[in-house]
């Protein structure tokens, strides 16, 4: 993990329409987004200088903002250009992109109807989300005590900052016990996802993954479902109960940051890093690199 603080780096950040020096991209402590979590964001990866599925991410950013009642003061095309400009300015071939939209400082209180909607885009190098040495051996997950909320409790289809409160709590608790991450159940007690990635299982050659009805239907998730189907592997999206984990043979996570990461253990259950998981790690790598060639 890098020890260089994120507010003290070289480079540029796109803020409300222009690139500015990295260290100047600051907000005031009295910012609505900070106090009331009125913020939505994206996480994207650059491969060979090109953002993978860039427009899909930008469109999701706009949908997330809309679900939070925020109108982004730019068009999708303008944000697409701003991302490309920021990636080029940072000059990394492989990198991570973080666009964020938040309510500003004009109003402080639960209501912030006329607070400005701000947009920033930062690009930095983030090579591997999980320990690279551990990754292909399969990471170990704890089971979180926190659950994904019901869709009528929070706008669960939005990549909203507030929804990450439970993720950080879960991940910190798991890390304190020596696990890499945590599996979160949903409000009904069904298997949902990890704290920053979707989850898949393999049983007898068939892939099973929870229906994303109260958590993010990840862009990587959909990409990997497409890759599995292209290999002729059956993919079943359904409700999965935690006790079913006992019969699952392979397990993996998908996410922009996590890419395709094998899982070797969840609580008392063990999984092999089998053929299907290894094939999908390779296929995803191929897909993002092919995109790079295109
Ligand atoms: C909570 C959560 N679920 C799922 C995902 C996977 O989404 P995507 O594949 O679009 O990155 C992410 C990552 O952004 C996430 O943070």
From TrEMBL:
Cofactor: pyridoxal 5'-phosphate
GO molecular function: branched-chain-amino-acid transaminase activity
Key word Transferase present: yes
InterPro entries per record: Aminotrans_IV, Aminotrans_IV_CS, Aminotransferase-like, B_amino_transI, BCAT-like_C, BCAT-like_N, BCAT_family, Class-IV_PLP-Dep_Aminotrnsfr
Protein EC: 2.6.1.42
GO biological process: amino acid biosynthetic process; branched-chain amino acid biosynthetic process
Source species of the chain: Futiania mangrovi
Protein name (Swiss-Prot/TrEMBL): Branched-chain-amino-acid aminotransferase
Role summary: Acts on leucine, isoleucine and valine.
Annotated catalysed reactions: L-leucine + 2-oxoglutarate = 4-methyl-2-oxopentanoate + L-glutamate; L-valine + 2-oxoglutarate = 3-methyl-2-oxobutanoate + L-glutamate; L-isoleucine + 2-oxoglutarate = (S)-3-methyl-2-oxopentanoate + L-glutamate
Family, per entry: Belongs to the class-IV pyridoxal-phosphate-dependent aminotransferase family.
């Amino acid at each position: 993990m890098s020890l260089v603080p994120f507010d003290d780096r070289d480079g540029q950040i796109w803020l409300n329409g222009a690139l500015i020096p990295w260290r100047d991209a600051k907000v005031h402590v009295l910012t609505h987004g900070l106090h009331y979590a009125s913020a939505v964001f994206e996480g994207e990866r650059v491969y060979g200088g090109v953002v993978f599925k860039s427009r899909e991410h930008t469109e999701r950013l706009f949908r997330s903002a809309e679900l939070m009642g925020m109108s982004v003061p730019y068009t999708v095309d303008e944000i697409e250009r701003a991302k490309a400009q920021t990636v080029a300015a940072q000059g990394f071939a492989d990198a991570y992109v973080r666009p964020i939209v938040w309510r500003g400082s004009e109003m402080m209180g639960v209501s912030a109807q006329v607070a400005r909607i701000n947009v920033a885009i930062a690009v930095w190098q983030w090579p591997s989300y999980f320990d690279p040495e551990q990754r292909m051996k399969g990471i170990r997950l704890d089971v979180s005590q926190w659950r994904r909320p019901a869709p009528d409790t929070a706008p669960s289809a939005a990549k909203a900052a507030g929804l990450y409160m439970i993720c950080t709590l879960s991940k910190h608790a798991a890390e304190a016990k020596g696990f890499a991450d945590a599996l979160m159940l949903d409000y009904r007690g069904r298997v949902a996802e990890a704290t920053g990635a979707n989850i898949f299982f393999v049983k007898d050659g068939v892939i099973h993954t929870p229906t994303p009805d109260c958590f993010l239907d990840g862009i990587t998730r959909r990409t990997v479902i497409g890759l599995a189907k292209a290999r002729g592997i059956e993919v079943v999206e359904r409700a999965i109960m935690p006790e079913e984990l006992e019969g699952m043979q392979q397990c993996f996570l998908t996410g922009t940051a996590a890419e395709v990461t094998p899982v070797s253990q969840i609580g008392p259950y063990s999984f092999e890093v089998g053929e299907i998981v290894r094939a999908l790690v390779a296929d995803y790598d191929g897909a993002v690199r092919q995109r790079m060639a295109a």
